[in-house]
Amino acid sequence: MFDRNRQAGKTAGSNILKIALPLMLLLRLFCAPAHGQELLTDTGGNPKVFLIEISGTVLNETFSKARALLKLAPPNPGSINPYLVTIDGYAKTNERNDLHWNSDETLMDAFSSQVRCQIKKSFVKPPNIFFFYLSPALLGKRQFLTQHESERQKLAEKGALPTKVFASAGELSFTVASGEVKGSIWIKGYDAVEKSYVQYSAGFYGRQTNSQPLLYP
Fold first, then answer.
1. pLDDT digits (tens, 9 = 90+) for 77-110
2. Residue 91's pLDDT is what?
3. Cα separation of 106 and 43, whole Å?
4. Is 98 exposed, middle or buried, given 0-12, 13-18 or 19+ CB atoms closer than 10 A?
């Protein structure tokens, strides 16, 4: 009798799990984005655009005040992320120290005013996330630090095209509060010109803007 009752209990517990697990998955699918979209409640779900300044390092180069647009929008249909976050250079793209970020290529966590994205690992193709920098190999071997050498370096930099480095790993995290955004980003990828892995690491700060015609000429 005891064994029979125990078996009946196991069967009932198993049936409950079979029903509960799909319900939990459905609740996560439908409720998680709604929770994350707290940052867009004051705009009625419309996107927010921030004009940001980025300062950081790439390899041995230090840069500052690179400008970009960070856009925080509702997720694309079918996305499990609570937001769509993109970053692109402003007012020009594909410039030195510029970057492109698309959160659809990442896994995102969002809680209250904080957002964090981590690049998904892929063995098929790199994500559509990348940065530009000037590979030292394009400038030639640095000679003695003389006025002539300094002029040669400036001419080489002016004529060289920035190298595009696709991400193999990276993370973006930021906080939004009172119309301002502040955060950090790092992207690591293989530079085929330099023949080595290079990391882009930077912090950024910016304010929300409503000047859409100016930002998108």
1. 999 999 999 999 997 877 889 999 999 999 999 9
2. 78
3. 25
4. buried
Q: What is the DSSP letter of 178?
A: T
User: DSSP code of 54?
Assistant: E
List of domains in the chain? 38-215 (2.40.160)
Helix, strand, or coil (residue 70): strand
pLDDT range class, residue 2, cuts 50, 70, 90: very low
**Would you say the C-alpha torsion 105, 128, 116, 207 has a positive or negative sign?**
negative
With 0.70 as the threshold, say if the pTM is over it: yes
Computed over every residue of the chain, the mean pLDDT equals: 79
User: Which residues fall within 8 angstroms of residue 32, CB to CB, at 6 or more apart?
Assistant: 80, 82
Q: How many CB atoms lie within 10 A of CB 149?
A: 12
Taking a C-beta distance cutoff of 8 angstroms, is the pair 81, 103 a contact? yes
Alpha-carbon distance 139 to 195, whole Å? 15
Q: Provide the token pair at 191.
A: 């530079």
Q: Examine residue 91 and say whether the peptide bond preceding it is cis (omega within 30 degrees of 0).
A: yes
- 23: its two tokens: 């319900």
